[in-house]
Sequence to fold (292 residues):
Amino acid sequence: MHCEMPETDGEVLPKVAYVLGGGGDLGANEVGMLRALLERGILPDLIVGTSIGAINGAAIAAEPSLEMLDRLEDVWRRLGKERVFDSPFRIASTLIRERTHLNSNLPLRRLLHRLLPVTTFEELAVPFQCVAACIERAAEHWFTEGCLADAIVASSAVPGLLPVVEIGGEHFMDGGIVNSIPIERAIALGATELYILHVGRVERPLQPPRNLLQVMTVAFEIARRHRFAHDMAHLPPGIVAHVLPTGEEGPGSSIRTWDFEAIAGRIARAYEATRAYLDGLEPRSTVPEEPG
Fold:
């Protein structure tokens, strides 16, 4: 993937990356953040995403415009009617039949087909990568070429909720298992200015689990926050990282999933908070070119 920085009169322009994390329905926060960024003309040179962040990121990589953002927001507002996740009766049937997951990923594939104007990585307007967890190699795998839908569905394959995805003879699960907020990947690809679109969970205190579901989700959340804290503490010199605010107040719940009724409010609050944050930044400038 081409990652050289453009040069202007002896200076190197910052290479801007959008880093979009995972987090189920909380990914609606990213839609508000994206609108604030695009309205201010802060356009990405690179986009990396995980899980729900891969869906949001691919849409903007295909067409980094407010028109695409309108389409993406409309998709989010309609999620409750899209039936991306099945009814309880169909869930029971799927679990009995498949034994490993509760939902089919066909509704998600149909949603991507309607949302995205392109079908492959090579057709995207902005370089984009998304991550999934490879079962056979017990490692993160970055998708950079070929079929977009396959890669995004693999990155979004929440364990137990959606099926494992087979691609090229290997099997993949949700990218949040290995890299929920892929800061390190953006830097490795040459980004010098990061806009980190997380879903808000890293801001909220965790509480001891009270049931089996919470045991699993709290464990997942600890892994997410540990990697995020490590990456932020080890930013290389010269890297500017903006952790965009969600606008959420209070501890809230760190483990809610797919609360469709809350989506519109999440989008609006993240937009207002991110707009205020961006308005408070110093004017963006070029970075002096390193000698040699």
